[in-house]
Amino acid sequence: MMEGKSMQISVRSQTAAQTTLSWQPVAGAARYRILWSDRPGETVRFKTAGESGESLFTFCRSTHIPYYIKVQALAENGALLEESTPVQTPVGRVLQQQLEALSRGLVAVTANTGVFISWRLFKSEVTGHNATGLTGTDFVLYKNGVRLATVTDSTNYLDAQGTSGDTYAVAPLVNGVEGPACRGVKPWQKGYYELPLQKPADGVTPAGEPFAYHANDMSVGDIDNDGEYEYFVKWDPDNSHDVSIKGYTGRCFIDCYKLDGTLVWRLDMGQNIRAGAHYTQFMVYDFNGDGRAEMAVKTAPGTVMTRFAPDGTVLSRRYITMPQKDLDAGYSHADNYVCTAQDYRLHMAEVFRRWHTHPEVVNGRWPATVEQCFGLAPQYAYPLCEADALALADYFLDVYAPSRSPKNELRRFEGFIFDGPEYLTMFGGDGAELDTIDYPYPRVDDGLLWGDYAMPRIEPCNRVDRFNAGVAYLDGERPYLIACRGYYTRATLAAYDFFENHFHKVWGIDSGFVPMANPFNDSGCHLAVGTDPVYGILAGQGNHSISTADIDGDGCMEIVYGAAAIDHDGSLLYSKYGTLPDGRTRAKFGHGDAMHVADIDPDSPGLEIFNVYEEGERAPYGWALRDAETGDVRFGEYAEEDLGRCMIGKIDPNTRGLQVWVKDVYDVNGRKLEVPTPGTNMKIYWAGDLSTQITDGADYLHGDQYGVINDLTHGVMLQPAGTATNNGTKGNPCLVADVLGDFREELLVRTADDTAIRIYTTTDLTPHKLFTLMHDAQYRCGVAWQNNCYNQPCYPSFYYAGDMDFANVLPQLNAKPTLWMAGDSIMQSYAPGDKPVTGWGEMLHTLAQGDAVCQAAHRADCPFPQEMRYELPGLVIDNCAMAGRSSKTFREEGRLDDIAAHIRPGDLLVVSFGTSFNDSRAKDIKGVEDALQAAYPDWSVRRAFTAQIIINHVQARDGEKIDNMQQAMDRAVANGVKNLVVQPTHLMHGAEYDEMMEMIDDYRDKFESVAVAEPLLGEVGADATVINEDKEAVAKAVTAEAVATAGYDSVEAAAKDGTAFVFMGHGTSHTAKISYSQMQTVMQTLGYDNVFIGTVEGEPESTSCENVIEAVKAAGYTKVVLRPLMVVAGDHANNDMAGADEDSWLSQFEASGAFDSVDCQIAGLGGVADVEQLYIAHTKAAIDSLNG
Asked: Three-class SS of residue 970?
């Protein structure tokens, strides 16, 4: 193989979703293989994007980051002839992801050697990277109001002389300019902070069993847009149950607290929501983009919200809004659907009584009789009478179910809910109900169709009540809610947006129920496929949690549903099947208890997934590391048992990449490592060296778990006391997330007595600098879905470890596009001494994202001193404009050559020269002014422009200062003007006229009298047929001027010579655009059949250039004269009408090939004597109105 120079890759074109590449053909090549990576580096393993038979290929991935592409030329036999060097693609789009506007999150903690302080860096403050972290905003740390240190390489500091009585604050430092400091904080005295809780009262079940409450899962969200998180705490009773466990439970509550312990609201889930890890997932996120977090949760009749004032008094107590259809059906909040053992017996009798009507029975898919299901000879006549149905129910409870398994004690089946409405509710951060809808996929039954009766262990209300939820940026920029039901057999998912403050279903997915020959005896239901022809293979593939991440490089998040993945648009990316050890049997990967989606291998493009699977000998793998985009296994092992949990993290500093483990530890290439196996309950980013820590130990089945933070390198890093973890053997903290301080995670764990949530933050000093992980959308969504059934850790979208390359954290910064600007004074960047003169080119960066950290400087290699370069997080603006230059002199002076020497693929060039014309301004506007002054010598005539950009340009180029409207009004007030007459030089009513009137109205009370004259065309009529004297006068004046200038005695003479006149106005979307249609009506009324009205903007549509050309052609004219229908013959007349560009009217008329000649008259209406007299008449009418 040769690495030749002939295959130089070029970017041909690019869109938001794809990049087209080309290269020089290689002699002898039969085809080309295209390889890609989303990161550079010598150790990176490129992936195959595809093959092409020609030297052209379209690479389909979102262009919000750069990619590295290389091409291999292959011979007919597949031999490698040549390989190109990688080329970096440009960035073609910017994802404007919705992120929280957080505070600095400053935290100070007393440590062994002083006070440790840490704070947030925002993603928007990052401009680049170095060897140890990200660069951008630096910080000034204050202690007791006195500058303590300038911190540039991290966002933490250890004050060795700090004491518990000190107060710390931090201020951002950008380009040497210090911003305002954040609110000061004092150190946490005990090394942690306790958020006080208000524990719900104990209770007693209907069976007389007492229960008490424990703080359980948590989430965070900013409910009031103050930049500080509020804390959402779920309360579970100590009799909360897994869906497979019988018994009554207490109610579930969700509280929202301020950090100081103020209870904002408490949501009582009500009697019809069972307590347990699988029933209530609460998604906290800013779903409507208003800067305030909402909470989405499954509800039911009886769910009630209580809101509190800061002093603890009740503000309101309201039940959720039940749909009217349910109220009409007789449902109410007083209903209680929690079953007793007798309820269940009667329920089964009713199921059997209706057996003959069940669709599966009617369609012949299930046995015709219940006896057949139980293996009995026919005994009863169908439809069953009540007595026979009860007899079969008793047989089922006492004989059949126990025969399947001695654990089937269904006579004691109680505490479950298999009836009644189910809802999905969105609450505002303040506790107000925003919307309630039916839960997307109802239970249908008690689990009979879901396989709950099919296995030896009969577990009604089990598989049917397995819920998951999540948040995903399905469009790449905004958060969507994901609501799920089922994963052992039938799997359903629905996606909603809440952008308009109500649920809007984006898509829904349903695998369909898995077919069963006998719903009371079909142990293969977990292995079956659902009935849906597309989504059927999704059945049985889900986990007890989901993950959301962009796994296919399209810029949008997908939903990883265990062994399957759903694309952002709801289509199925894959559902993985494999082959059992016999080499013949195809089987689904199936359900598993734990899953991790992250950048596990830093040398492999994209993300990876590490899973365990619990189907044992019926699944091809017990655990596997997979490629996230394809789901393909990189390595894994078959297992004949349920392996429980798995974990990933950087636990071996000497091994490249993260490590993965179940029972043994492996590197990313499947090599078994000789290191101890850590725990698998929860990971946490705690250490300063970017390694991964674990909470508690490897044995999660025995003993209590307290939230001990440890790893193989540092040992125990935190040993909490007086704390407890949740969910039995799951042993998870309430929350692990980056809620305060720098980018590392906090441990939120309940105190053993449930009086507080204890927040621990690391005090391990780090030399690294990263933005808060809450500004990584993948991680932030993970914090939201962490409270799913089996709490799983969340991961950022980038590789996080001690051997990370910080260039890959925000790869778009490695290929930021540059906006090159070529122009004159209206665009130029001006020196401080030139102020207040300002060009729009130097102001453009203020409109861009990340302007707060914009760095402005002169480009070192640029020979032209006025050039300025504005460095933004996602864009560079290089302003090369220079006052007094035309496009010709700009080229002649080498300024365009300077740009050409630096411009790259993906960059943009903006050119703007000469937008105000002195000759026209003097002739047209001044002509009107002089005429008015001559007509009214006793009045003072003053000029004001409404276009600030023209004002700036004229001042910069000519040194002439012209007032804008506000300045003119202020000057009139200051000069003591009593009577004010405003004569607009606008052609007609419109947006600029309306803005002018708003300004005038603001000043009316400062004058004794104010009158505003009509614009040139006068009042706007109701439709195209309504004309006035002003429009008729203008039509006659401009036509006469055009006819004479063209050398004709009359408009009729011009018509006989085949000449048409086209008067081009501006056009507008304003309702006043009807004026142009009225002008055309005037021309026709006057008999000017060879006069046509057009507009630059093509509004009204009939006035577009294309339509006017067709009208002139249809009328049979062979000569055309173009003339502006504008007061001033400026940029539009010179460029849009008469310019040399192919889209000018002159060029388009000529290109049509329909005319022998096309001439232009560059003259504004302001220079026409009759028009000047019309302005005088309008002004007179305004003056007369002042005099009564």
From this structure: helix
SS (H, E, C) 441-460: CCCCCCCCCCCCCCCCCCCC
Q: Which residue has the tokens 């990688």?
A: 86
b/e per residue 25-50 (b: at least 16 CB within 10 A): ebeebeebbbbbbbbbeeebebbebe
pLDDT of residue 846: 86
Spatial contact of 267 and 273, defined as CB atoms under 8 Å apart: no
Dihedral of the alpha carbons of 846, 849, 853, 857, in degrees to the nearest 10? -60
Cα→Cα distances 928→43, 45, 1131, Å: 73, 72, 19
d(CA 547, CA 782): 7
Residue 509: which of 492, 487, 486 has the closest Cα?
492
- Identify the CA nearest to 1178 among candidates 924, 985, 1038: 985
Helix (H), strand (E) at residue 723: strand 723-724
Tell which residue, 241, 222, 243, has the closest CA to residue 231: 222
pLDDT cut 70: percent of the chain above it: 96
Give 894-901's long-range contacts (Cβ < 8 A, gap of 24+).
894/863, 895/822, 895/864, 896/822, 898/862, 898/863, 898/864, 898/867, 899/820, 899/822
Q: How far apart are CA 122 and CA 144, in angstroms?
A: 25
Give the residue, 409 or 1128, on which the prediction is more confident.
Answer: 409
Provide the 8-state DSSP code for 85: P
Give the CA radius of gyration of the chain.
37
Rounded Cα distance between 6 and 453, Å, is 67
Say if residues 470 and 477 touch (Cβ distance below 8 Å): no
pLDDT 10s digits, 544-596: 999 999 999 999 999 999 999 999 999 999 999 999 999 999 999 999 999 99
3-state SS, 887-949, equals HHHHHHCCHHHHHHCCCCCCCEEEEECCCCCHHHHHHHHHHHHHHHHHHCCCCCCCCEECCHH
Q: What value does the mean pLDDT take over residues 102-119?
A: 96
Q: Tens of pLDDT along 957-977?
A: 556 677 777 887 888 788 887
Closest to 553 (Cα-Cα) out of 807, 809, 797: 797
Structure tokens given for 1011: 């009158």
Closest to 453 in 3D by CA, of 312, 550, 351: 351
CA–CA gap between residue 631 and residue 1061 (Å, rounded): 68
- Note if the bond before 440 is cis, omega within 30 degrees: no
Residue 386 near residue 349 (C-beta atoms within 8 A): yes
Distances from the Cα of 680 to the Cα of 446, 470, 550, angstroms: 33, 22, 25
- Per residue in 1061-1114, pLDDT tens? 999 998 888 888 898 999 999 999 999 999 999 998 888 889 999 999 999 999
Nearest Cα neighbor of 44 from 69, 77, 62 is 69
Residues with Cβ within 8 Å of residue 1104, at least 6 apart in sequence: 1094, 1095, 1098
Token look-up 């550079």 returns 40
Task: Measure the N-to-C terminal CA separation of the chain; round to a whole number of Å.
Answer: 95
Burial 796-812 (b: 16+ CB within 10 A, else e): bbbbbbeebbbbbbbbb
Task: Provide the 8-state DSSP code for 500.
Answer: T
Structure tokens at 319: 């039940």
Q: Are strands 433-438 and 134-136 parallel, antiparallel or unpaired?
A: unpaired
Q: What's the rounded Cα separation, in Å, for the pair 968 and 942?
A: 8
The total number of residues written for the chain in this structure: 1188
User: Contact, 815 vs 128, CB < 8 A?
Assistant: no
| 110 Cβ contact list (under 8 Å, min separation 6) | 116, 162, 164, 187, 188, 189, 190, 191
* Alpha carbon distance 638, 258 (integer Å): 48
CA distance 876 to 862: 15
pLDDT at 210 over 90: yes
pLDDT given for residue 4 in this prediction? 47
